[in-house]
Amino acid sequence: MTTLTQGIYFDNNATTMVAPEVVAAMLPYFTEQFGNPSSIHQFGNRVGVAIKQARAQVQALLGAEHDSEIVFTSCGTESDSTAILSAIRTQPERREIITTVVEHPAILALCEQLEKEGYTIHRLPVDGKGRLDLHAYQALLSERVAIVSVMWANNETGTLFPVEEMAELAKSAGVLFHTDAVQAVGKLPIDLKRTAIDMLSLSGHKLHAPKGIGVLYLRRNTRFRPLLRGGHQERGRRAGTENSAAIIALGKACEMALEHLEQEQTQVRTLRDRLEQGILAAVPNSFVTGDPDNRLPNTSNIAFEYIEGESILLLLNKLGIAASSGSACTSGSLEPSHVMRAMGIPYTAAHGTTRFSLSRYNTLDEVERVIAAIPPIVAQLRKLSPYWGENGPVENPEQAFAPAYS
Amino acid sequence: MWDYSDKVQEHFFSPRNAGAVQDANAVGDIGSLSCGDALRLTLKVDPASEVILEAGFQTFGCGSAIASSSALTEIIKGMTLDQALLVSNQDIADYLDGLPPEKMHCSVMGREALQAAVANYRGEEWKDDHEEGAMVCKCFAVDSKLVENTIRSNNLTTVEEVVNYTKAGGGCSACHEGVEEILTRVLAESGQTFAPGSAATAPAPARGKLTNLERIRRIENVIESIRPNLKRDHGDVELVDVDGKNVYVNMKGACVGCQMASVTLEGIQERIVEDLGEFVRVLPVAAKRLNG
Ligand SMILES: Cc1ncc(COP(=O)(O)O)c(C=O)c1O
Ligand code: FES
């Protein structure tokens, strides 16, 4: 990472550093440009002009046909909720929703709630590599379905879903299609005008803009009901005085993401691949989760068998290295990540999954340092593990150590 | 990241007694299916005195699981088996200067491994009787299984009753939605429906002016109703004095020095305030000595 922070930050799927240029772009909107964009006077008007520019910058990154298709929200979660709740309000007679088992809680928790309220939720399963069965999906599409919501890229494994194809299938069945593209935007080329996607969520803090700003892309002529009603901001589709500094920051971040899109596919991908190969070569009983052939260029999720993720993170953190884990303990829940369970990864590996997510601010030197740091940490924890012998897993680990489970 | 005490960190970064004890004569293997953590405890016990000469652990688990295992082995070394069996999970947590509420189950696993190892040494069969569910109430570290079982065995029907019996929901109240969901589910089992607005069984808050005696009685009643919950956690509380707006209590047993003590006091205060319909402050009796 640049000299702005200390330590090695490989947790960019959790959140990203706000780019210095983005900070510079937003700062004036706290001080001299503090006006309310709805106001008539010059204080407001200048902010209104800047927001218009930001909207165009977001539009360019998404390849949206019209800038009025961009609705600023407070975060990815709000965009997700707005999309789904709008779809069920505009089509009260449709009582089914199609999604997947590996979505972010922003979708899953909402769907669970809707299920309690009487909706039928179809959660598409995934195979061992986190892939969907499109035939099963197609069979579920019907005029009973209010909306399909499928993530573009998985936050834990980086695995990509064929959302463009799925949107076409939804369209031919007359069903609305939403994608949570919070992890995909800025990392993959996106050209919405060439797709059948009706709605898309993005979140600023995943692409070097600040936290607390998001976008719902809403294709023109899509029937819509706002989540928040009030003033006429965002053409009445999202009331509440604009978070102008953050909107301008997001615009700048989108402009920069577009400039660096190529770099994600080349430089960032090369770093990620080097990291992954280096770790896999040095650590026995480790493997990549998700679909290695079809995933985000910045993400590598590696399962270290027979050890637990939080312990790995604590030891990495001691060396100033930031990553994240699908282990139960890091989230405070009792279950390991729902994504790992959905892929059928055994407990003894799911708990040790560690996600490294890079950005264009990372360097090869950092990658090499992490490759060097991992093997001793894994060895140290395996020495403590009841599943691990002198030089490898005990024979038949699941039988040799079969504790009484409570 | 977690708010781990220095002691937890220290035992995690440099665990004591890691690895299996050579020629151990007691082994306890325990796993928590729900969270996937697992622990093997090996002991070398002196057959004549039943003193634990050596203890070693192997743990597949998070930072606090490793720290709890390390603490456990340190605590029990040199104890007799009977003494060791008295070690509670609260003792393990206290030894580590406390664990975050979500992590208390890690110390439970340590204690169970110990029970299993002793059973193994004595040639007995060890049966686990503790069930664990997802954390419902973070303020008081109460999990869903405990809430469920308590609702069932006491025929509870309101959130307020759940608070009284389990403490869950008695603090910040953020978990009331979760408690209501469990109530809905459990009541449905017996064909009942959860009615959120239904009248509480507790006496309605006093409105008119209370006599001093009535006031103290009410305070006493509230404290009595809380004691069973504290006792379950090996703690207790007694009313010492009521002085105007100040209610002085004496925290006993595990409540002494417990990281939850202040939360517990707050909880008691809330209940008394609610019952009396006036503001009072609940203070540990030590505060009275300072004030006086
Ligand atoms: C796939 C996905 N969807 C939604 C979100 C939520 O975004 P936000 O934090 O902006 O609400 C995240 C971020 O954690 C995410 O990774
Ligand atoms: S979380 Fe239960 S009262 Fe605070």
From TrEMBL, chain A:
Highest classification ranks of the organism: Bacteria, Pseudomonadati, Pseudomonadota, Gammaproteobacteria, Chromatiales
Keyword presence, Mitochondrion: no
What family does the entry list? Belongs to the class-V pyridoxal-phosphate-dependent aminotransferase family. NifS/IscS subfamily.
The broad enzyme category this protein falls into is transferase
Q: Which UniProt keywords apply?
A: Iron, Iron-sulfur, Metal-binding, Nitrogen fixation, Pyridoxal phosphate, Transferase
Name the chemical reaction catalysed here.
(sulfur carrier)-H + L-cysteine = (sulfur carrier)-SH + L-alanine
Can you provide one Gene Ontology molecular function annotated for this UniProt record? Answer: metal ion binding
Functional description taken from the UniProt entry: Catalyzes the removal of elemental sulfur atoms from cysteine to produce alanine. Seems to participate in the biosynthesis of the nitrogenase metalloclusters by providing the inorganic sulfur required for the Fe-S core formation.
Question: Domain Aminotransferase class V, which positions?
Answer: 8-370
- Quaternary structure and partners: Homodimer.
Q: Does the keyword Translocase apply?
A: no
The GO biological-process annotations, alphabetized, read as: amino acid metabolic process
Q: Name one Pfam family in it.
A: Aminotran_5
The cross-references to InterPro entries, in alphabetical order and at most eight, read: Aminotrans_V_dom, Aminotrans_V_PyrdxlP_BS, Cys_deSase_NifS_bac/arc, Cysteine_dSase, PyrdxlP-dep_Trfase, PyrdxlP-dep_Trfase_major, PyrdxlP-dep_Trfase_small
Q: What is its EC number?
A: 2.8.1.7
Q: What is this protein called?
A: Cysteine desulfurase
- Species source reads Thiobaca trueperi
Instruction: Report the cofactors.
Output: pyridoxal 5'-phosphate
From TrEMBL, chain B:
CDD domains referenced in this protein's UniProt entry, alphabetically: IscU_like (cd06664), NifU_Fer2_BFD-like (cd19947)
**Residue ranges constituting the BFD-like [2Fe-2S]-binding domain according to the UniProt record:** 135-184
Q: What's noted on cofactor binding? A: Binds 1 Fe cation per subunit. Binds 1 [2Fe-2S] cluster per subunit.
Q: Where does Fe cation bind?
A: C35, C62, C106
Q: Which cofactor does it need?
A: Fe cation; [2Fe-2S] cluster
In this chain, [2Fe-2S] cluster is annotated as bound at: C137, C139, C172, C175
Q: What Pfam families is this protein classified in?
A: Fer2_BFD, NifU, NifU_N
**MF-aspect GO terms:** 2 iron, 2 sulfur cluster binding; iron ion binding
> Domain NIF system FeS cluster assembly NifU N-terminal spans what residues?
4-125
Q: Where is the signal peptide?
A: none
Describe the location of the NIF system FeS cluster assembly NifU C-terminal domain by residue ranges. Answer: 219-282
Keywords (alphabetical) are: 2Fe-2S, Iron, Iron-sulfur, Metal-binding, Nitrogen fixation
Q: Which InterPro entries match?
A: BFD-like_2Fe2S-bd_dom (IPR007419), BFD-like_2Fe2S-bd_dom_sf (IPR041854), FSCA_dom_sf (IPR034904), N_fixation_NifU (IPR016217), NIF_FeS_clus_asmbl_NifU (IPR010238), NIF_FeS_clus_asmbl_NifU_C (IPR001075), NIF_FeS_clus_asmbl_NifU_N (IPR002871)
One GO biological-process annotation of the entry reads: iron-sulfur cluster assembly
What's this protein's family per the entry? Belongs to the NifU family.
- Function, please? May be involved in the formation or repair of [Fe-S] clusters present in iron-sulfur proteins.
Designated name of the protein: Nitrogen fixation protein NifU
Species, as recorded: Thiobaca trueperi
Q: List the lineage, top down.
A: Bacteria, Pseudomonadati, Pseudomonadota, Gammaproteobacteria, Chromatiales
